[in-house]
Amino acid sequence: xxxxxxxxxxxxxxxxxxxxxxxxxxxxxxxxxxxxxxxxxxxxxxxxxxxxxxxxxxxxxxxxxxxxxxxxxxxxxxxxxxxxxxxxxxxxxxxxxxxxxxxxxxxxxxxxxxxxxxxxxxxxxxxxxxxxxxxxxxxxxxxxxxxxxxxxxxxxxxxxxxxxxxxxxxxxxxxxxxxxxxxxxxxxxxxxxxxxxxxxxxxxxxxxxxxxxxxxxxxxxxxxxxxxxxxxxxxxxxxxxxxxxxxxxxxxxxxxxxxxxxxxxxxxxxxxxxxxxxxxxxxxxxxxxxxxxxxxxxxxxxxxxxxxxxxxxxxxxxxxxxxxxxxxxxxxxxxxxxxxxxxxxxxxxxxx
Length: 352
What we know:
The chain starts with 7 loop residues before the first helix and ends with a helix. Helices cover 24% and strands 28% of the residues. The protein has helices at 8-12, 20-34, 43-59, 62-71, 88-95, 123-128, 269-274, 333-351; strands at residues 102-104, 114-121, 130-141, 157-158, 167-172, 175-180, 189-190, 203-214, 223-226, 242-248, 255-257, 260-268, 276-282, 285-291, 300-303, 319-326. The strands form six sheets. It has a four-stranded mixed sheet. It has three domains: 1-96, Helix Hairpins, CATH 1.10.287.110; 97-156 and 191-249, Sandwich (HSP40/DNAj peptide-binding domain), CATH 2.60.260.20; 255-351, HSP40/DNAj peptide-binding domain, CATH 2.60.260.20. By secondary structure, the protein is of the alpha+beta class. Strand 13 and strand 14 form a beta hairpin.
């Protein structure tokens, strides 16, 4: 039975002239939604994820994309696998940060994998900087064996196949190939007796709680690296790192651009016409802002130093207020009379 495959461009919801970066962003968005780790037990999500990954592997590789554009799916017959030179963990490392922490990247010679933790912050927290508690599950060193993987009383021995290097060499004609040692799985050591608590891996899954210091001025997408706070390594190997990825919650009043903040400032017409002072709500409380006479609707007024710092420049930016005319919705009889008198005076002045 012959089945027709979906168009790869439609699968990723990108145009046929989409750039590699647009293709990568589309894949990130869909993979975030469909990855099996986020849809446990869902066969439908798993199949959709495989389809999305297949489309990305083709369209992100210039040569395979050119074949697909010219011949369709038939042009890819006999080809498979990920794009040459592309490491999918590069994307998965950015993708699957969540409140429980997720691993990315293969373990390197037993080294623990890195983790990404997506941390949401309010603008007030970013402005001041503070210590934030993080809680997540990961692999930690086994207490029973001290992380060695060996049964208490026994000691690991140097692997006889790789002589402790974790790699073996295979000679093929003029070429020498290196590969991870299959006996010790790249650890360089073998166990005489495996620890029963961790079955020789030197680590168990556990809950971890730490504090991270958020520096003032972090921005959307910034990462804070915590060395050694990722997965524990196998059999005493070094642990991975934890990357805290910053995401900013939308603020009901302010919009941020670098160190500057922007807001709308409703002002009554008499004050715009005559000038005066208004109280502006900033991140640090109310602050007086002078209004000059005849200030037009849409004018930008600046409060120096009332923005937020940035990582590159610790000096705070400015708060920039866009003036809008505040139209009263409920008027008393006296207010209506006064406004009518004002309008009459304008009409009389125009006739002169």
